[in-house]
Amino acid sequence: MSTVSHASLLRRGRLLEVATLLWNVVGIVVLAITAIAAGSVALAGFGLDSLIEIGASTVVLWELSGVGADRQRRALRLIAVAFVLLAAYLVVQSAVALLTQHHAQRSIGGIVWTAITALAMFALAAGKRHVGTRLGNPVLITESRVTVVDGLLACAVLLGLVLDALLGWWWADPLAGLVIVFYALREAREILRG
What single DSSP character describes residue 194? Predict the structure, then answer.
């Protein structure tokens, strides 16, 4: 890989992380508004996931600004911690929603936002994985998996909102969130072992 192409790939990796960061900053505002309007635990929780994604993107931007194996190891550990925090959040949020039998109001804004977010996160994750693979950067590749989890969580929240709105299945969202716990913990374990 030539120096120019390496520099170009680094710039593209940074742009993908900045796009993810900005999307999630906007998402926190949108999710706060829709969560309050609908009284939705799922939308409020998804806002917390956006905070975790902001943290992971910040770690990757920091790592891409320097070099060294020690820096990569620290960045990978921080991303593993983000996965563990995401899993913990999903367990607590899902348990509270199930135990309290929380029934949120319909949220068309929440449905639209989570649908668009799922598409955006999967596209960003694919871009990060591609650039990370070409750079040989395990931190960018690993963070692409955090972005996939964000997209999966958006799908789970979307499914729960739609099933609740159409069929009154209030419990669909917290159950879908529990499925993602397995994925998040598996990723954290692989990072820490790797």
Answer: -
Instruction: Give dist(CA 24, CA 47) in Å, integer.
Output: 8
Exposed (0-12), middle (13-18) or buried (19+): which is 66, by Cβ within 10 Å?
Answer: exposed
Contact 109, 30 (CB under 8 A): yes
Residue count of the chain: 194
Residue 41 neighbours by CB distance under 10 Å? 22
Q: Which amino acid is at 110?
A: G
Closest by CA position to 148, among listed 131, 114, 132, 125: 125
Q: What is the pLDDT of residues 68-96, one digit of tens each?
A: 778 778 888 888 888 898 889 889 888 88
Q: Which domain holds residue 174?
A: 3-193
Query: Is 0.85 topped by the overall pTM?
Result: no
Please identify which residue in the block is written with the tokens 């499914």: 159
Tokens 């969560």 locate to 35
Tell me how many domains the chain contains: 1
| CATH at 8 | 1.20.1510
Per residue in 152-165, pLDDT (tens digit) is: 989 988 998 999 88
Task: Name the residue among 186, 160, 6, 161 with its Cα closest to residue 80.
Answer: 186
Q: Are 111 and 157 in contact (CB under 8 A)?
A: no
Q: How far apart are CA 160 and CA 189, in angstroms?
A: 28
